[in-house]
Amino acid sequence: MDQDDEIAAAAAAYIVLSAKKKKRKHKCWVKPSLCDRSEYGGMHLLNVLKKDDVYIGNNKNNGSVKNFLRMSSTDFEWLLCQIAPKIQKEDTNYRQAISPMERLLLTLRFLATGDSYHSLMYLFKISVSSISRIIPEVCKVIAEVLKDKLKVSRYLGRYTAFQSNDIM
After folding, report:
1. 93: Cβ–Cβ under 8 A, 6 or more apart, which residues?
2. What is the b/e burial string over 80-92, where b = at least 16 CB atoms within 10 angstroms of the residue's CB?
3. Which pTM was predicted?
4. What does the DSSP 8-state code read for residue 25?
């Protein structure tokens, strides 16, 4: 019996150890296609567009940048300075935060084109779940910063009242 107990204990230990080895591998945090954001993301594209404007002598009109963002480089830089402290996130030990410039670029491109989040994911190399958090957050901050600088139509109240009475 003594030897049978030892065999049973060894078999139990083997089962426990082999079960621990079969744990699932940890899933990757980021899709491989999104890993090269620093090389091929929105920041890289903006830098290329700025170089294009300088190369063709269109630096004052910001042709490529203005076409991409629907805003001049100067206006973009001003807006970035206004909202950057409010949209800045901290880096962690595991990953680098998406910079305020990338957040603003992403939001302005969405507002300028109405592209889907999936399309923006491939352009900026940022996941759809992150995009779905970033765009509303940045829009809210832009509205807060620019509320005193924007003129809202006096007919807006009538328009919203008309909408609320119009039931489908």
Report:
1. none
2. bebbeeebeeeee
3. 0.68
4. P
